[in-house]
Predict the structure.
Amino acid sequence: MHRLFHLILALVSLSLLGCAQSIVTPHGEHQGRLFTGTIIHEDMTWSGDIEIEGVFVVGRGATLTIQPGTTVRFRKIDNNNDKIGDSEIRVSGRIIAEGTKEAPITFKSAEKNPAPKDWSYVLIFASAQKNSLKYCHFRDAFTGLQVHFSTASVSDSIFTHNNEGLRFGRAKFTISHNTVENNNLGIRFTRMEGPVEITGNTITQNRIGVFLVPSSQNIVDFFEPGRTGKPWNEGHLEIKGNNIFANSDYNLNLGVKQKWDLAIEGNWWGTADSQMIQGTIFDKTQDDELGKAIYQPVLQMPVQKAGPR
């Protein structure tokens, strides 16, 4: 609850960036630099080794570009004593973090003995532009990447050793060809409207692979904040063509009092045996207050090209 409160507070604060009196870093490329409590309002490019202490904010109208091979380390500070590191990147402008297979971009703890929750997250919130992350490694975070009220894609990336790999709410979001493993929660989400596409991923060795938490408003066609009558996003959540298997508690958990059914056909669950698959899914079968996971038809063999390409 403490982390949820601080996330809500952080999201509200983003709406006030135009009035914020903080560090405004000049336009240009920065290699090997420490940023503390920074807001940028102009474009910036990172390369080499970067360290973050506190909150780094990409303000509206600004683009943060991270070059292949860059390592971003987050110093652990915990001002509110909730046992979660406070350092993070918040994006209300745009982030382009496109590594390569040979030179990925890494987001990780700066601690000598890193652990999950050493830093908060890369948070994309109310961004008016398309954000792109490719060939990135996220580790040691509360959540590697969160996306809310924004358009983004993440592909060919690795999420490991985090409390949560990814989290999203209302978004236009593509999650493709990633490996999500050895986290507490692999992918966590609260909404089922879209368009959100989760495809070609390997989700394994987490405590819970895919976790749908409850929401009283997580079905389709919500209107944009200005109440113009035009839906901000239209479409549905699609989870198809993934390998979701060998997660220790459940491959899929529909949460608590989550009454919506979830369509999740066309995935590999480590087996084609429906009884064995059902044993790895927590839904209406175990709790009458939950919706049903509609997982059939299932794939008969693993997706051969799942994970980073």
Observations:
- The longest helix spans residues 2-14.
- The radius of gyration is 19 Å.
- Residues 11-26, 216-229 have pLDDT under 50 and may be disordered.
